[in-house]
Amino acid sequence: MPNPPVDYYTILEITPNATQQQVRDAYKRAALKSHPDRVPVDSPERPTRTKKFQQINDAYYTLSDPSRRRDYDSARSFHGFGSSSSSEEPADEEIPHQDQQQTGGFPWSAFGFGSKPQAEQERTSSEQFGGVFEEMLREEGLAEGQDARPTSKFYSYVGGLSGGAMGFIMANFPGAIAGAVAGNRLGAIRDARGKSVYSVFQELPQSDKAKLLSELAAKVFAHAVGS
Prior knowledge:
Low-confidence stretches: 83-109, 173-193
Strand content: under 5%
Strand order of the largest sheet: 1-2
Helix content: 40-55%
Distance between the termini: 44 Å
Structural class: mainly alpha
Largest sheet: 2 strands, antiparallel
Radius of gyration: 20 Å
Shape: globular
């Protein structure tokens, strides 16, 4: 008999009757906290973080969609997860529960990205995180527009993280134009190739990725505490 499903609510540290917005907020916190790029590539923590990050993305993929969440809740109840609260409806929308009189095993790979090859799982997780990452950077004024292009504030921020950021940007983004520069601050910079802020982030040095993720996590956690 197949193993029972991972408890996605526990992974995101939310209750089974969490609203869809609470699911999204929990994903932001968990993904930023466990992102593999917060440690060096050769860190012994990296494999554990990668696995945890995958589970977090599986949880968000499943619970962020009402239909997938309904199916998951039905299977979760069938296997006796949690208490009676697991059958409560999320507060902001109705997610009906199906008949739980199932027979035989359930294909748990239907949830999350488990049915995909490992390389594809990692790529899909990265793409899913990228969409939320860009949303968070828009909120901080570090990205703009539907295509989430980096703003001058983003490049100025990157310049504050790394003294070599100017050389990195000029080497990796042909056509970039630097405006006023003060110390290692980059001033107004535009990427003529129109890359999204997440694409730029992925090409940053690992140390700058870690610092940016840590700073963003601190803002998200501070907002959660203050709300």
